[in-house]
Write a structure and sequence with these properties.
The chain contains 13 helices and 15 strands. By secondary structure, the chain is of the alpha/beta class. It folds into 2 domains: 8-12 and 269-396, Aspartate Aminotransferase, domain 1 (Alpha-Beta Complex); 29-266, Type I PLP-dependent aspartate aminotransferase-like (Major domain) (Aspartate Aminotransferase, domain 2), CATH 3.40.640.10. A 7-stranded mixed sheet has the order 1-9-8-5-4-2-3, sandwiched between helices. Strands 7-6-13 form a 3-stranded antiparallel sheet, with no helix packed on it. Strands 12-14-15 form a 3-stranded antiparallel sheet. A hairpin with a 2-residue loop joins strand 6 and strand 7 (181-182). Helix 2 packs parallel to helix 8 and helix 3 packs across helix 7 (213-223). The longest helix is centred in the C-terminal third of the chain and has 19 residues, at 269-287. The chain is globular. The structure holds pyridoxal-5'-phosphate (PLP). The site of pyridoxal-5'-phosphate (PLP) has 14 residues, from helix 3 and helix 4. Belongs to the DegT/DnrJ/EryC1 family.
Amino acid sequence: MSHTPSLAIYGGKPTRNTFLPYGKQWIEEDDIRAVVEVLKGDFITTGPAIQAFEKKLAQYVGARYAVAFSSGTAALHAACYVAGIRSGDDVITTPLTFAATANCILYQGARPIFADIDPVTYNMDPAELERKMTARTKAVIPVHFTGQPAKLDEIRRLAKKHGLVVIEDAAHALGASYKGRKIGGDGDLTMFSFHPVKHVTSGEGGAVTTNRRDYYEKLLQFRSHGITREPAKMREREGPWFYQMQFLGFNYRLTDIQAALGLSQMNKLDSFLRLRRKYASMYNHAFRNKKGVTVPFQPEDVQSAWHLYVLRLRLPELTTDRKTIFHALLKENIGVNVHYIPVHLHPYYRRLGYTEGLCPHAELFYREAITLPLFPKMSEEDAQDVIKAVNKVIQYYSVRGVNGGC
Ligand SMILES: *Cc1c(COP(=O)(O)O)cnc(C)c1O
């Protein structure tokens, strides 16, 4: 039947000999030196490296304040706390995200409400957000899925009208911009993650940026058990040793060791972003007019940070399903992935009463999505291998006629 080379899944030669992961950190000698310097110094937790890292991040995104946390999840939890989310509240988010986004709502005893995605942008649909709002709605957590900013103007307008706090999950969006402004620079509260697959890493780590002084001070206090040592914040002061625990916080501190790595990585963020954009545009160019697949939608007024490159399969134009194509690409030694299983379909959420059919656009997207490898340390040849493998596999499973037989 075909002039296409035999797929590795059927015993053919794989497109490449070594496995290409979907994402990976890039640590160099200068990063290592920065960490070792801290280890030799006086502080290994909450010292000068934390402050320098926070300052660098705040400056980069254009926010007044940044507070570092032990993970992105901890950062998001803190943002939910300072936004005043508590038992009895509803918080609207997207189902197309990592479980942590909705889990943080549950940590606060509130109820996650899932607003379906826009089937074109894959981000939260503002019309769905409005449809899901009730008197109980306290906040909205949009996720800038894959690094492409959500429709912030619409979301903020609705939030303002209904008195909601907007907490942006920008775990994918460090360096992205919306209408000329960096994500994290002008929101109420914006969360970032420094997990190794994200744009810059501190091993584990996260941060919240904000322009509000009251949020900033509460975030700092939440990070350390709700404890303050500042005389101005206490009614009495029994002596120089005195501190007070004023609300229930956590130990969510990042170490200085990690902050040194994060700071060193921040110096490379723009070059990392350039490489991500270069590989993403190679993929866009290769797959734009290809039968059987849809490339990511790119609005005019936003610049994606390209954390992920998600190719969407057009299943009616293909003779098989996502699972087979996924397997076939793995056998070609291409480390594909799937982002995301809609949060409400996980067993824990089903036990809470969420059911299939709640967000049909996200559920359909899940059956058609494949994440291709995208990280700054990959080479142009690696990206070419991905393109070759996708072409080979999609060609093989194309409905003849639809693909013009070529
Ligand atoms: C990575 C990620 C998180 C959580 O960040 P951690 O640092 O892993 O805790 C939250 N939301 C999204 C969308 C993420 O991708």
